[in-house]
Amino acid sequence: MEEKDISVKRLISNLFDKVSEDFDASGPRYFAYFGERLVKFAGINEDQRILDIASGKGASLLPAVQKVGQNGDVIGIDISKGMVCKTNLEIRRRDIQNARVMVMDAEKLEFADERFDHVLCGFGIFFFPNYKAALKEFKRVLKSDGRFSFTTFLNKRDERFRWYGELVDKYLVGAEGKIQDYDGPAFDTEETLYEILNEAGFKNIKVISEEKTFEYKNEREWWDKLWTHGGIRVLEAIPKERLEDFRTEVFAKLKKMKKSEGITAAMSVLYASGEK
Ligand SMILES: C[S@@+](CC[C@H](N)C(=O)[O-])C[C@H]1O[C@@H](n2cnc3c(N)ncnc32)[C@H](O)[C@@H]1O
Fold first, then answer.
1. How far apart are CA 13 and CA 153, in angstroms?
2. Which pLDDT tens digit goes with each residue over 49-83?
C-alpha cells in the first residue's frame, strides 16, 4: 500500500474515532434513515448473509439484521475502532445474536471467496483511496449471484445553504493546506456510479436518487450536528481564534432561515447496486 494511502486511512480512522460517540446520535438521524432505505433498495431477504462495509454506527447493519431474521447473518467492518466498539455495544444492548462488527479495511477483506449474498456500503466508498481495489474485494466475497449496493451524496446541494460553503471558504483562507486533498472521483452523479460499477464488472446495474428533507429544532442543533460526522475535518482546519466569529455568522444565517417548525434542510443522495 502506498505511503499516502496509509496516511489518508490513519487520518480517516482517527476522525471517525473522534466522532464515534455522537455520530448520528442527535438531531435528525439521517444516516439511520438512508441506511434503512439502502437495505430496502438492496432487496435483502430472510436467511441471507450480509457484509456491511464501513458500517459506522450500524445505519444499514441494524435494519439488515431485521431483514435476514434469526437464521441470517450480518457482519459489519469498519476501519475505525471507535465505531466498531460502539456498534458492538449496541448489538449487545439489543441482544442481537447474529451480527458483529470487526475492525478491517474495505480494501483488504479477511473473508473467504463467495461468502456473502449482499455487500452493502453506506456513504463509505468516497473514503477509500483505492476504491477499485475495494470493489474487487466486494466482488470476490460475493456469491455468484450476489449484489453490491451502496449510497453516496448526489451533487445537488440545498441552495438555501449555499452561504455555508462560502463562509467556510472565507474562514479557511490561509489554512487550506490543513485539509488533505482527495484525488478520486466525486461519486456524486448517476453516470459516475453506473460507470464505476460497470468498469468493475458488475451487471444489472441500478442507480436511483432521492431528495429528503430533515428538520433541525434550532440553530444549536444544526451547529452541534456539524461536529458529529466527516464535516468536522473542515471545521477543525479553521484557525481556533476565528472559530467563535465563524459560529456567530453561522447562527445569524440560520436565524434568518428558521421558521416555527425549526430549520429545514434537504439532502440528496444516490443509491446504486450491481450484481456480480
Ligand atoms: C460517513 S460514515 C458512514 C457509516 C455508515 N455506513 C452509515 O451509513 O451511517 C463512513 C464510515 O466509513 C468508515 N471507513 C472509512 N474508510 C474505511 C476503510 N478503508 N475501510 C473500512 N471502513 C472505512 C469510517 O470509519 C466511517 O465509519
1. 20
2. 999 999 999 999 999 999 999 999 999 999 999 99
Q: Which residues line ligand 1 (CB under 6 A)?
A: 9, 12-13, 16, 24, 31, 35, 54-56, 59-60, 77-80, 83, 105-107, 122-124, 127-128, 229-230
- In tens, the pLDDT along 212-267 reads 999 999 999 999 999 999 989 889 999 899 999 999 999 999 999 999 989 999 99
d(CA 102, CA 184): 26
Per-residue pLDDT band at 180 (split at 50, 70, 90) = low
How far from 97 is each of 9, 39, 66, 69, 81, CA to CA, in Å? 30, 19, 12, 10, 21
CA 225 – ligand 1 centroid, Å: 17
Nearest atom (ligand 1) to Cα of 230: 1
DSSP letter at 259? B
Q: Is the pTM of this model over 0.90?
A: yes
Q: Give the span between the Cα atoms of 48 and 3, in whole angstroms.
A: 38
According to DSSP, residue 97 is labeled: S
The CATH code for residues 3-157+184-213+267-275 is: 3.40.50.150
Cell numbers given for 198: 460497470
Residue nearest to atom 8 of ligand 1 (CA): 122
Nearest CA to ligand 1 atom 5: 56
